[in-house]
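Reopening this one. Same input as before:
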Amino acid sequence: MRRILASLMTITAILAGPAWAHDPIFGIGPHVLFKGGVEIAPEVHVSKQGDKRETELGVELTYGLTGDWSIGMELPYDKKEEGGISTSGRGDASLFTKYRFWRHDTLGVQQSMAVLVKVKLDTADDNKNPALGSGSRDTILGFTYGYEGRKWYRWAGIRHRHNGKNKTGLRRGDKWLLDLVGGIRFKPTGYREPDTVWLLELNGEYGQRAKDNGVTLANTGGTEWFLSPGIFWTKRNFAIKAGVQIPIASDLNGRQEKSDYRAKLILEWHL
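Same output, byte for byte:
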């Protein structure tokens, strides 16, 4: 009986530890770092929309202020192609913080909730290449819930992005993002063994119309839905996250090109 209790306590401790914490690929989750922890995450984002192609290379740096509160920054480098014209350079950097305000641990299961605040700064090389940045300071507020078990995972998240006005008077419409995610670990593994979780996300986006000096632009805003399969592979403090967003429904205002696909690859180290 003592051995059984010890084993159960070990499993619970492992699930509660930072190496077992997971987040969705395209949505948001309540995962935060342990106190004093550092996460380094190089990322690659690729997207295509009609004749527009974008590749973003970046790195996300995160620090655990406490066991429930993390802060960090994102530093991107963008390459955009449209109509045969290619531009590249430094993108808009972001600062963010996430606070986990609720956590409930039971045998083999951890549930938690968190809030997210992110500020996108106007730091892109838009003087040389105006297409690289938005030219405005934007704010994202989010709320997320997560359930992590030995086999099943599920997350739900909602975000609101408030876009600022750039120097020419253009203000892109605010956007709502909704994410519902499920995950499964087909084969439970030990802490020192490689671990694989398969994910399936439903990502919805609703954008309001943009305004140029107070004039509403007809060919902006609308709704898109994506079905996004992905994989989360971990080995102790290293992880690989990869997925692709496949558009399944679109109701864009006016004449706009629909999204063809989006893909993301993330490497994570916890130090």
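So the earlier flakiness isn't reproducible anymore. For the record, The longest helix spans residues 2-16.
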